[in-house]
Amino acid sequence: MSGDTTLFSPPPVPLGTVASIRALMRDPLTFWPQELYDGETALHSRFAGNSYVDTSRPDDVTAVLLDRRDCFARSRFVKAMLAPAMGDGLIVADGESWRHQRSVAAPAFRQSALDALVPVFDRAALRAVGTMGTGGDRPVMPVLMSATLDIIVESLFGDAEFDREGVTRDVGAFLDVMGSPHILDLLGLPAWLPRIGRGEGVAAARRMRAVSAQILESKRAAPGEDGSMTAHLLRATDPETGARLSDEAIIDNIITFVGAGHETTSVGLAWTLWLLAHRPEWQERLLAESDGLDGPIGPDTLPNLALHTRVFQESMRLFPPVVAVGRQVIAPVHIGGVDLGPGDHVNLIAVAMHRNPAHWPDPDRFDPDRFLPEAVKARHRHAYLPFGGGATMCIGWKLALMEATVLLTRIVRAFAIAPVAGAPPPVPKVRVTMRPDDGMRLSLTPRLDRTVFGT
Length: 455
Ligand code: HEM
What we know:
CATH 1.10.630.10, binds protoporphyrin IX containing FE, 3-stranded antiparallel sheet, alpha+beta, 5-stranded mixed sheet, 47% helix, 455 residues
């Protein structure tokens, strides 16, 4: 079983209605049947008066996210999960509200703005490596979560003072409680009906919003030319209308960036480290690439660490942090061989597409060369969907690849990574993201031939 990437077993045939509802509430990986993984296919089901299409066809991605995107809006299930904390932020909004927010947020994610954040990524990576200390057998998820939270929070706020532990606890509580669809949402019942068991998630969201509001106030009281994302959001105007974001919208997006950008990256890294633990030869290749790295990692260093980026991309193919992208139909459209109308749903199943042998020969094999530029060019552009696609493609995708590259470089240089002897392999469980069920226990041995600080 060592390093085998088939860590979960889809149902061999589609489930019946009751079993489907149970599976969806527990974990969608227990719902999508094997046929979605084997090739390009679309599965049609009906529930509570609506049609649902679950598809692993890249052409359907192109239709839903690009060519026919006017026929779709955000999934009401995703809205119900995220809106209590993220309000009408970028990942929840549709139509004009989405366009306005996306264009005002864009400058914060430009290459020059991201380059200025690389020292933040590197400092957080060095702190994470320091926390891992003398290594040993340990779950790595908590350290990775804390590093990516540090990164997103410092990127957003610069050096603003606030209760970091409180925010960390609240982000965790929110994602835990809100991270799967509630039965009342699945049944399409209205939002004012209380969702039992959601109280703590909503309370955590309220506390996070209050902290964000305070930080916004302190930034406004002491305006400066700091390169933080919040400063960008306060400054930027809509190129079409000249309007700025309201305070409410800035808070929605602060919470959105923390919620969307922190667990995703750390989960992706956890699977990357697990894959490398079983492949010491790839650790050697990474070490060869970072050999001679001297001093801090800056924006100029990153292009020399391209293999690290490809390793992370290949890991997200096998274990995509976000397993599917869902949309709700708002105008008649034909997808996956089915006529759909308002209220119906389409789910683009990234985790299945990523193992389609037609696009990924020998799909269960770990092979970062699949992400060499010529290989990427030769492939269907929507066979790989870790960040979604089209106009709503993840606004943080470059930031995520850059921070993951820096963190991976620092961790691989500091530790030889191995599986914990005798431990069972981790089982992927989807709760918002595809988390390892054991917190990703790995065995870390300090590399005595290299100092942590990169020389
Ligand atoms: C490896 C890390 C990440 C993964 C796998 C990931 C995945 C995704 C996916 C699949 C979507 C599309 C959702 C949809 O179309 O419904 C998305 C959208 C989004 N992501 Fe990420 N993300 C990552 C990192 C980040 C970071 C670092 C940020 C912010 C700093 C971020 C912010 C967002 C936002 C705001 C959207 C909504 C964009 C829009 O609709 O205009 N993400 N992400």
